[in-house]
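Hi there,

I know you've been waiting on this one. I reran it after we fixed the sequence typo, so this is the corrected version. Both the input and the resulting structure follow.
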Amino acid sequence: MNKRIILSLLILFLTLPFYGQIRGNNIVVSVTPDHKDWNYNVGQTATFTVNVRRSGTLMEDVRIDMEAGPVMYPDVKKSLTLKDGTMTWKGKMAMPGFYRLKVTAHSGGKDYEGLCTAAFSPERVRPMAQCPDDFDAFWKRALDAARAQDLNPTMTLLPDRCTKDDDVYEVSFVNDGPSSRIYGILSVPRKAGKYPALLRVPGAGVRPYGGDTYTAAGRCIVLEIGIHGIPVTLRQDVYDRLLGGSLNGYWETNLDRPGQNYYRRVVTGAVRAVDFIASQEKWNGQSLGVTGSSQGGFLSLATAALDKRVTFLGVVHDAMCDYEAELHGVAGGWPHYFYDKGRKYTDNDMKSPLLQARVAGARYYDGVNFARRCTQPAWFSFGLNDEVVPPTSSYGVYNIYPAAKQLSVYPMTGHFWYQEQWDEWQAWLTKQMGL
């Protein structure tokens, strides 16, 4: 008995380090507005309260840097010391948009950040993106060329990923040329029947994918795709090397040449994914949604605009929208093609042939121009504190979206989502599928 106790204690002590977790910081910078909903009318003044706390109590004589003003274009930058760890700041805007106060506290050689983004008449924000006259013809030609190719699909069962409810496959199909393929993970209910379907499109980056057996397990078909024309079940280090090598900065490729832009094959590949889903025997032929965040938010808009078999879309902090806003000193969407560290463009800048070519090319890949062509019900969600995709571009897209829509803003979120936000997102998707 003693040996068993000793052995149990030994196992316990050996495993304890694996259960320890690093969670958060002991020093926290909080920045909060005086309106609980973070919303103000143009002309009103927002009052922000800054608290820098260590172990839950205000720090003394803490050094901070602060910047304040319109998102991505702060007009105030200061360094000061907070004697008692707290301060207030007032800000206002003369036009619809978003005012951000960001504070960085310095202690022990480390930096601690906090920010708050107040919305001023956000329902009046409008995007500045212009649309090429041949936008529809451009994308029709691209899709016609892609669909001239047979899908030639492959499906490989992944036994270790199958569940009691779903069979899971690695799949591929032809995109816009015989040797250009899209790869993904397909989950199909095991039971006989006809099912709704969901296409998950990815955020930016290069990575493997695990597939989706959690959205209404056993009750819907889900296809999760990658965009780079490579299998999605390789080792992580393969994707890391690609992102550091040939795919580094892929989002910048041929911006001034829309016919050779990297995203041309990405957009056609997402639409071809709809073709692939529609070819599945178990699809019910009625319900097919598309959803994604960041780059995936843009791809959701593009796919829904170009294929009316899509019946709903979920768009979360949508990137790649309203690039041209930055030509006017207003925050636009990632990847911020025309953002230059807050510098505003001059008339001479705008005369540059290279800039003009980049602007003209970007218009074919602006989510705003796809959003204007959507007819499906959509759910939008994002955070006001997002420093990758500013709320200016996300709100602008939502405001001009022409079909039925719902908006769920989580003010404190940055380029991520809270559990409650994820749960709401999932619930909306399953409701749209009638589940």
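Quick highlight: The chain is about 25% helix and 30% strand.

Best,
R. S.
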